[in-house]
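Box 3.1 A note on notation
Throughout this textbook, protein chains are presented in two layers. The first layer is the amino acid sequence; the second is a token string describing backbone geometry. Keep the layers aligned when reading.
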Amino acid sequence: MPLCPNPYALVPMVPGPTSLHPAALAALAKDYGSGFLEESYLPLYNETCQGIARLLGTSNQVCLMTGEPMVALWGALKSAIRPGETVLCIGTGPFGYWMEGMVQSVGGIPQMVAFPEQSTINLPGYMEQIEQAILKHKPKMISVVHCETPCGTLNPLEELGALKKRLGVPLLYVDAVSSVGGTPVHMDAWNIDFLLTGGQKCLSAPASVTAVGVSPAAWEIARTVGYQGYDALRPFENVGTTGAFPYTPDWSGTAATHAAVNALLAEGPENVFARHARVAARCRAGLEELGISLFPQAGAIASPTVTAAFLPKGKTWPAWQKELRAKGLVITDTVGAYQSKVFRLGHMGTQADDALMEQALGIIASTL
């Protein structure tokens, strides 16, 4: 049975937001009261946090914030960095590069370690460059993107987390928006302090709720910084016991996320990860069989949740996009320097489906 029996398109393959899981859709069809008044909301909130914590590989506290993941990405940054403090920004794609501007906007000092968009940090010499940058700049925080969605790549984080711990960097901030729920993540084992994710990618939940895993060291720094604002993390530190939310919680979004997470856990995380890996491998092999070149360079780690590839010879964007849409396949190009030159298939969440991928490859083949 398809994971999403009634998708908005014949073959939805956008790398987020993904087609909602049927359990999430069912949860959204119900009416809910006020999270401030009804006693049943707080247990739902806590159960959702606990389920997500399993996917994050953490015993640390997980907080749910109302909004798309950018709320948490900004909130964690503002809660940790004061003007004049240094952040080492590791970039292997647009999202990693954009952290430089984010840090600057809060008065921090970004030190960029930028690698090509077709690469991942496991490539020869990359970790040595990162180590030298840490020793030179002595940052308060390291930022990195786990899955660079625009590039279809996955940065391995175990060695980076060990390096952060060995060199005494206070914080490791990880954007895992497009990886959590689609591939193993080990927040505690990888020494991550802020692990940021959302519902609209691999969880196939609405984009209205985002999750943040916060280490004890990160909470201590957040207390010291004392940032206040809609996206501040500090008000969430004790909310699981007090129920004193800083704003009206999104009950419907929490319920849908709870349902989607429970469905994933019921399938079994290892089974879910295997499904994502299998569909990703079929996607890459199928594209190459059609003569389409994959975007990641040799030796780089391809993501199990999204594939990026160069446009087929003779095709231009958006003309090819319209051609595919007319046949029912919805995909997108990338962002940044390769916009309109690279396209992406989002095989994550409900879209990590064998039959759906065969349909996608068939439609692509029919246009060549």
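Residues 269-289 form the longest helix (21 residues). DSSP finds twelve helices and 14 strands in the chain.
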